[in-house]
Amino acid sequence: MAKARKPKNEEAPGAKTSENTGAKVLHQKLFLSIDFKKRQIYGYTELEVSVPDIGIVGLHAENLGIESVLVDGEPTVFEYYPHHQNSETESNWNSVTDPASAADAAAMEYIGVLKREDTANLLINCCKPSKDLSEQLDNVTLENGSQSSGEVKQNVKLIRINYWVEKIEAGIHFVGNIVHTDNQMRRARCWFPCIDDEYHRCSFDLEFTVPHNFVAVSVGKLLYQVMCKEDTTRKTYVYELAIPIAPRWVSLVAGPLEVLPDRTNFLISNLCLPHDLSRLRNTMEFFHEAYSYYEDYLSANFPFGFYKQVFLPPEMVVTSSTSGASLSIFSSHMLYDERVIDQTIDTRIKLASALAKQWFGVYITPESPNDDWLLDGLAGFLTDMFIKQFLGNNEARYRRYKANCAVCKADDSGAMCLSASPSCKDLFGTHSIGMHGKIRSWKSGAVLQMLEKQMGSDSFRKILQKIISRAKDPSNSIRSLSTKEFRQFANKIGNLERPFLKEFFQRWVSSCGCPVLRIGLSYNKRKNNVEMAALRECTAALDARLSVIGATSDSESRDVDAGWPGIMSIRVYELDGMSDHPKLPMAGDRWQLLELPCHSKLAAKRYQKPKKGGKPDGAEDNVDAIAPLENKTSIESPLAWIKADPEMEYIAEIHLHQPLQMWVNQLEKDGDVVAQAQAIASLEALKQHSFSIVNALKNVLSDSKVFWRIRIGAAFALAKTASEETDWAGLQHLIKFYKSRRFDAEIGLPKPNDFHDFPEYFVLEAIPHAIARVRGAEGKSPREAVEFILQLLKYNDNSGNRYSDVFWLAVLVQSVGDLEFCQQSLTFLAPLLKRIDRLLQFDRLMPSYNGILTISCIRTLAQTALKLSDSISFDHICKLIEPFRNSDTILQIRIEASRALLDIEYQSKGISSTLLLFMKYVVEESSLRGQVKLCVHTMRLCQIAVGCDSDDCVDTVSLLDLLHLFKSHVVFNNELLRYYLFCIFQILAGRSVAFTFIVCQIIFTSAHFHVVHLFPYSLWLPVGSSLT
């Protein structure tokens, strides 16, 4: 038995990366016994390894106790260097005196840790040793350590490692009577020795011994389960996975799980804890349709044969969903019963997305880090196809439009480049973490959708089918996919020309930035055409684009600024019809002048005598004073409205300047949800809002045939138009619309809830939230808005309604938090707070779905206290919220209470005190997901603190404490927490701009590092998107 050796200078003296040792694992067996009473995991693993000439095999292992190692049945010498050591670090941080130096220290620490984790630290001698392992490694030349797999296949050894898990806190966890893995990057090594590399794959045999009344679910096919001969109270589950996978995709969940086989497809199994079984049954009714749809679309059976889905309590998972090969683990908060409406769409999309990643990401894998974007994009594309098929084309197009908008906001520097050696190769997977990873996923999916539009949906589908079919070919199975191979498929199957593909991939995949188009137009009556001027810009600065390709010369600069391949189409809607004009080149001169012929002709203008006593222009006193100007377009030209890039063939930020009436026409007459969303955004952005705008928005809100998300957008736009200048018309329309649907006309009070019409339910649910955002000249809520929301809270009646009103009530409560009270409306504050207190007490006695109602009450109490700090005591609110942080409270409520207390701490005592409180909360928080949510919230507070002009600086003590936390075992156990903590350091150093969502990326080089500026992300994100 060998003890773990402490490396000198935090580096194993002879440690080489697994890549350099040349070893390759061909097959691995894992045999683990799980003792739930003693909370111990022990066993052994056997690896069939192709050993290089060096005779040394390097594996990854962490938090493990290595008892012995045998090679072909004979004991051998091995050395084990755990990477994570709580070594003395104060001497390294003596220079930390301000946020900038702390950020530099954190960057050095982060880079060092990532490099150490990439290094093999369990060195096994597979030949008779003549000297110490460290000396042998030092004498080996690089050539001996970099042989191809073909050269070393001859020397195959069977290595057996007997071990136990020393610290069950990273990679695998005990929570109550459940054991589960978390599938974090580089954490498989924390529960079994392996080559823990995304691009090193092998087949697996797995055996897990657990109590006889427990279920152990893992990857692959369950061969059998057998009672143990030595102990009949225990049972062994045996799994086989013949398809080679990376160790990260090996998952395990063991505990008192209930199994729910799919009623339609026996290959699908769903598991959860007993109390969630009824919700699981209701949630999974649709899933076999998504499963079958993917198989039909790809013309292949599910690659892993059996598919398992396990739902665990939220405090047990790191994210809402994690993937293993043939096994996905979800948070049980996604489950819902037949009475819940709001959770349905989000849950179905997440389940479909996890299934898509099984095809592209787990089964089909990227050939290199620079190909990660492609598999991510293909999984996203498959998910979009599911949304289109089962949730409707409107939902799919609306989500894609919102995602494209977010990408354009974020794609402003080289770190958003999808595939380039400097941006992916040496990032150790950090480019796929957090909001940055989500933005990259949206961009990847959008780029592939652009390709699909170029080649046609049938050709693109054939490419995906080809990728799957060649992977399933037993004679020549190729399961990795590269960007180069995909380009070849696009050329041969998609019939796209090579010059176009070269330019397309160079601009959209290997570079950064999206086009920004500023378009103006006028109608030439004499020529009967539209004269259009367009200026093309880029969301990324030229320096950022040059840094990606390493260009410095003027000629290279000109190439980078050449534009994008293809021609953008302009769609002109006229009085007599519609016509497309593919005339706007996306390359060449930045300024473009276009002439678009019109096909409609104006009728001769007739002169009308003014009515007696009327005005010369025929206008009436009660008509909007600027109506003649707005209607000028329809009177003096045949144009109705104009759309640029109507089919979303580009990820582009388009600023189209057309007359107001044309925007109104587009909103009212164009049936496309993207066109309607663009029209609402343009009308809402105007500095002055006329009655014609208000009326158009009101008409859209009232039209039940319009897509419900567009109607919600119109409601919020109406709230923004409400002002004294328009006699609060927007507010009046919102209230009138709500009362027409929900009030009893005879008694003037709300009717009992009836949510049978889901689209109408979503629209009406958003109205109170929109009303709460109406502001007067001084930024205060009108008295009528406050009174109306109080009335809704007071008279809410859900008796006789078959659906739950918990989300409905939660929105009402959150609307109170959005109100800005003035002196006249302060009289309503007491009854509002009293009503919220009653809801809190009620939710304690009868807990709502996922604690939604309590969360809204806590959030509203904190928001109101922060706005009215002169009237409401912080101490009183803190005493009210603090009990919700008890460990026996469900995760969602516990984290919301901690967020509220952090907000109050920041408002009352500043950022240093907030950081200290955050560190206290993180150490106390037992769940990995809760730690991440607290860190993300603190990151936002730090961004606010840096963005405001105040003298609130972080003291050195807080910075040093934060650095100690950054290097602690708490952070080592949680990859996402470590990443966001690193972001906090960079934000405090001022390496960001004033936006809420911040993501950073490290660019590594062989000799040094530098930190690229933090990314600003707009709050305008796709539906259902969040940072955690």
Summarize the structure in words.
Helix content is 41%, strand content 20%. It is α+β, with helices and mostly antiparallel strands and 1028 residues long. The strands form ten sheets. It has an eight-stranded mixed sheet, with no helix packed on it. A five-stranded mixed sheet has the order 16-17-18-20-19, covered by helices on one side. It has a four-stranded antiparallel sheet with strand order 9-10-15-12, with no helix packed on it. Pfam families: Peptidase_M1, TAF2_3rd, TPR_TAF2_C. InterPro entries: Ig-like_TAF2, Peptidase_M1_dom, TAF2, TPR_TAF2_C.
Describe the SSE topology.
Elements: H1 18-21, E1 24-35, E2 40-50, E3 56-59, E4 64-71, E5 74-75, E6 78-80, H2 99-117, E7 122-125, H3 133-138, H4 149-152, E8 156-165, E9 172-175, E10 178-181, E11 202-211, E12 215-218, E13 221-227, E14 234-245, E15 252-255, E16 258-261, E17 268-272, H5 277-283, H6 287-298, E18 307-312, E19 321-324, E20 327-331, H7 343-359, E21 365-366, H8 372-390, H9 393-410, H10 421-424, H11 434-455, H12 457-472, E22 480-481, H13 483-492, H14 498-508, E23 515-524, E24 529-538, H15 542-549, H16 554-560, E25 563-574, E26 577-587, E27 591-597, H17 627-630, H18 632-636, E28 639-644, E29 653-657, H19 660-669, H20 673-685, H21 691-702, H22 708-721, H23 729-742, E30 743-744, E31 749-750, H24 758-772, H25 783-794, H26 806-818, H27 829-845, H28 852-867, H29 874-881, H30 891-909, H31 911-924, H32 928-947, H33 956-966, H34 969-972, H35 975-988, E32 997-999, E33 1002-1004, E34 1009-1011, E35 1015-1017
Parallel strand pairs: 1-11, 17-18, 18-20, 21-22, 23-29
Antiparallel strand pairs: 1-2, 2-8, 3-7, 4-5, 4-8, 6-7, 9-10, 10-15, 11-14, 12-15, 13-14, 16-17, 19-20, 23-24, 24-27, 25-26, 25-28, 30-31, 32-35, 33-34
Helix pairs in contact: 2-33, 2-35, 6-7, 7-8, 8-9, 8-11, 9-11, 11-12, 13-14, 19-20, 19-21, 20-22, 21-22, 21-23, 22-23, 22-24, 23-24, 24-26, 25-26, 26-28, 27-28, 28-30, 30-31, 30-32, 31-32, 31-33, 32-35
